[in-house]
Design goal:
The protein has 691 residues and is an alpha+beta fold. Among the domains are: 254 residues, 3-Layer(aba) Sandwich (Rossmann fold), CATH 3.40.50.1820; 83 residues, no CATH class. Helix content is 19%, strand content 34%. The strands form 9 sheets. It has an 8-stranded mixed β-sheet with strand order 33-34-36-35-37-38-39-40, with helices on both faces. A hairpin with a 4-residue loop joins strand 10 and strand 11. Helix 3 crosses helix 13 and helix 7 crosses helix 8. The relative contact order is 0.11.
């Protein structure tokens, strides 16, 4: 089949005395945000090109159809299709969700305490069928405090413009006008007369909080807070003691909060503490005290407390620790729980309120785990919590844990219907030095029969942006590769917060290249240790992890057999220069401001994947994107693919697949998600000669 060609329309671009040519910038339409909402506005020649690429990809992978079907069945076979969550106990009802073998979406159920009658208050598959839509994204699903109303938000395109609906549970009828173009989040007032929501501006940024009186016209909605900075976005939530609403406004690097009492008839949010660049804080209230989680004078966060926000006299509650990330607090009447992360591993702690003694909670002998705490009742007068954990080889387990007696009872374990024996697998935590001698944690998962002699293929996963840490949790899908002698490795590279805020700072702005160097250092370390060999690594990353993939494949293509890039942020310079795009302005403290700062421009220009494609051999590459993606626009991977075709000097596969009815997270529904994983894995098995 003929290789697709995107028409070249050369355009000279210039900034800060630098000029460069862009042959494909024309596909970025001026009305691009309208295109995301309505794909009929897409230029016909661009649609034709994307469809040709899809056909070319399908043709080149037709020999994987059988293994793709096998992978789909395998992955689905590890999921308990008929499953139920643990119930959450409210004042009057118990609520839980379930999935079914035939359904793709969850069902929400409830039962009045003391009765046996079960009500179905939400069924995603039925809702989707009523709307006759291909894409069906649920943003929020909230029950009001008097258990009378169900609030839900839907995105039917994948563009993350959510419409809010409020339904009377008893009559199943909508009781208020739908509210369009919101962020999707719904917060009920405690008296159930109102909801609070955030409206998206023309650039898809939530910068206004409104209060809507249920049943009234949306024209009467009250604006209660507006953020003036284009870089900041807003949200609203309830305090743990249910006495205050807190409005948070922030970018990735700086935050500010406002508060008002839950019973204020005309909410007038009051400032907690004025924003200071680089300072992140959040406030909660409990038992007559306010608690502030902040990085002010505490790089890896601390928690302070005070009695009065109008006369703030903060005192230390949880002190800072170097390169140990201090998490927030979970409150019970007699206990305070919290989490920490150090060296890419989480720990849980509990403090006895009466004795003021804190100790670590240890409830498994496994070393490399992803632990968590969650409450399954609204009443805080209890000694029992649910602790859960998983590890790369052990499926999720939930325990009912008595904080007083330290007794634990297994109440739910993730079932793998097709079978899973954790003893068949080996999990290792290794470390290696980067180019500047910083120590990078590495999590390795492999089958015990896989030989460590350089013969194995290895999938190296990375992300490394926004301070997002890659936790060492369980993923049943990965065993479709691990069982075929492909070692799965997660590189905990800088740009995340696995080793505290410093780990993030050393991987962003003018330190961004550390992220790429860390990843390459891990790859070379694994080759030296004979886990794999040069040219046998498959790199994988999505979104900002796609930026990572683009940068490392331009720098060290010889290390890789293949690269899988999902919704990749590969035309990062062009996006950074365009301040009208949804995410650009809010990410100046992550990637820089190339338009207004020459040093930032030159640095981004030096690594931006699209601008640094070279005439050389590249490995096999699979790129996936979605037409309605609001975060990384489809034109980035499309341009990257077209330019790569011009430059690469090899005969390896270069495939672009565009989902024509999906967003940043790909297809909606359980089967859709499995199909996408099976597609990626089939490509990996093909290039690894394992079909």
């Amino acid at each position: 089949m003929k290789v697709p060609q995107l028409e070249k329309k050369p355009e000279l671009k210039s900034c800060h005395n630098t000029t460069w040519e862009d042959n494909y910038s024309w596909i970025h339409q001026e009305n691009i945000l309208e295109v995301l909402k309505d794909s009929s506005k897409l230029l016909p020649e661009v649609r034709k090109y994307l469809e040709e690429e899809n056909k070319y990809t399908e043709n080149n992978l037709k020999d994987t159809n059988e293994v793709k079907k096998k992978l789909f069945d395998e992955i689905k076979g590890r999921i308990k299709l008929d499953d139920e969550s643990l119930p959450y106990k409210d004042k009057e009802y118990k609520y839980w969700t379930k999935t079914t073998a035939k359904g793709n979406y969850s069902i929400k159920l409830r039962k009045k305490i003391g009765t046996e009658n079960i009500e179905e208050i939400w069924n995603g598959d039925k809702e989707k069928a009523k709307l006759k839509t291909e894409y069906f994204g649920v943003g929020d699903l909230e029950v009001s405090y008097n258990d009378k109303y169900l609030g839900y938000s839907l995105d039917l395109k994948g563009s993350e413009y959510y419409t809010i609906y409020i339904r009377d549970i008893e009559t199943n009828k909508l009781i208020t006008e739908k509210i369009e173009e919101t962020s999707g989040s719904i917060t009920f007032s405690l008296d159930d007369k109102y909801i609070f929501y955030s409206k998206l501006d023309e650039f898809h940024r939530p910068r206004k909080i409104f209060r809507h009186k249920i049943g009234n016209s949306i024209k009467e909605d009250e604006l209660i807070f507006e953020e003036k900075s284009d870089a900041f976005t807003v949200g609203i939530g309830l305090s743990s003691d249910e006495k205050f609403f807190f409005i948070s406004t922030s970018d990735h690097n700086t935050s500010e909060q406002y508060y008002f009492c839950v019973d204020e008839k005309k909410p007038k949010p009051k400032l907690v503490k004025k924003r200071t660049k680089g300072i992140i804080y959040s406030i909660n209230s409990w038992d007559g005290n306010f608690y502030m989680h902040t990085n002010e004078n505490a790089e890896d966060f601390k928690i302070d407390k005070c009695k009065d926000l109008s006369n703030q006299k903060w005192e230390a509650y949880v002190p800072a620790k170097n390169e140990v990330l201090i998490g927030g607090l979970t409150f019970l009447n007699n206990w305070v729980l919290r989490a920490e992360i150090s060296n890419a591993l989480g720990k849980l702690f509990v403090k006895n309120v009466n004795t003021n003694i804190e100790e670590e909670i240890k409830f498994t002998d496994e070393k490399v785990i992803d632990p968590g705490i969650y409450l399954t009742q609204r009443d805080k007068n209890t000694d029992c919590v649910h602790l859960n954990y998983s590890s790369p080889k052990t499926q999720a387990r939930s325990y009912l844990y008595n904080l007083k007696t330290k007794e634990k009872k297994l109440v739910k374990e993730q079932e793998i219907p097709s079978g899973h024996n954790s003893e068949d697998y080996i999990v290792e935590r290794l470390e290696c030095k980067s180019h500047d001698n910083r120590i990078i944690p590495i999590t390795i998962t492999r089958h015990k029969k896989t030989k460590i002699d350089g013969s194995a293929n290895l999938l190296l996963y990375g992300y490394g942006s926004y301070g997002n840490s890659m936790s060492p949790g369980f993923s049943s899908t990965r065993f479709s590769l691990i069982n075929r002698d492909i070692i799965w490795v997660t590189a905990h590279i800088r740009g995340g917060m696995e080793r505290g805020m410093k780990w993030w700072k050393e991987g962003k702005l003018l330190n961004k290249k550390n992220t790429f160097e860390d990843y390459i250092s891990v790859a070379k370390f694994l080759i030296n240790k004979r886990y794999t060999s040069k040219g046998k690594i498959i790199g994988m990353g999505g979104s900002a992890g796609g930026l990572l993939m683009g940068a490392v494949v331009n720098k060290s293509p010889e290390l890789f057999l293949g690269i899988v890039m999902a919704v990749p942020f590969v035309d990062s310079l062009t996006t950074n220069l365009d301040h009208s795009l949804p995410l650009t302005v809010g990410e100046f403290d992550e990637f820089g401001n190339a338009k207004d700062n020459q040093e930032h421009f030159e640095y981004i220009y030096s690594y931006a994947p699209y601008n640094n494609i070279k005439k050389m051999d590249y490995p096999n590459i699979l790129i996936t994107t979605s037409l309605s993606d609001n975060r990384v626009l489809f034109d980035e991977p499309a341009k990257f693919t077209a330019k790569l075709r011009d430059y690469k000097t090899d005969n390896n596969l270069l495939l672009l697949k565009t989902e024509m009815n999906a967003g940043h997270g790909g297809k909606s529904g359980r089967d859709g998600a499995i199909e996408e994983i099976a597609f990626d894995y089939a490509f990996i098995l093909k290039i690894s000669n394992k079909i």
